[in-house]
Amino acid sequence: MSDNPDVAELAHRLPTKGPHAGAAEDLRLWGELGRRSNASVADSAGKWRAGTAGLFTALTGLLFISGQDAGSLAEPWRFWVIGCVVAAAVAVMISLWCALAAEAPPIATLDYQKIIGEHGSVPGYQASVAETGARLLSYSRWATVAGLILFLLGSALWLLAPQPASSAPVTVTYEHQAKTKILCGDLLTTHAGAVLFSVAGEERPIPVQLAEIRDISAVSACPG
Prior knowledge:
Blueprint: H1 5-13, H2 23-71, H3 77-103, H4 112-119, H5 122-160, E1 170-176, E2 179-191, E3 194-198, E4 206-209, E5 213-218
């Protein structure tokens, strides 16, 4: 054995045996795997993004259609229902962003020396890009799962929330064309100097001029 410490240290680092017979083929297949991984991740991310975009469209459409109904819920039900639905939409937006980033990574200036310095080789760089895309796709899937859970939770709270109490019906006495009339129904709103009442059996609200009303009183129920 050599007395030179540098030579002795080098001897410990040398491989004890050469590469096996299939090492070259393994390296070739490894390079192909790295190249194919990028395309595979991008293809999976594209399909996932398309599905998530459809889910986001459905969520936002439901939010716009049913937002007014949710706004009529009593507190704190309204806060939790709207909060869950909005949080679900945000989670799906995050999922879309992650899927898009996995499908089309940000374009950056490539420097060969930097790639070799950080990844050791071009296949190593390709494998790193594929790994980043796969990680983003995993984040996208988890964000979608979280969005679905929040949406289902909001829907369950919506179904369990107590319905807002309907306004008590009223009996109104008014004079129209020199005749005293009485009607019973739900007071809807005022419009153009008239009060609109919803009366059972009538398809359209019945308007009563404010100047004609003589008395309004709440009742527990209108006579059948």
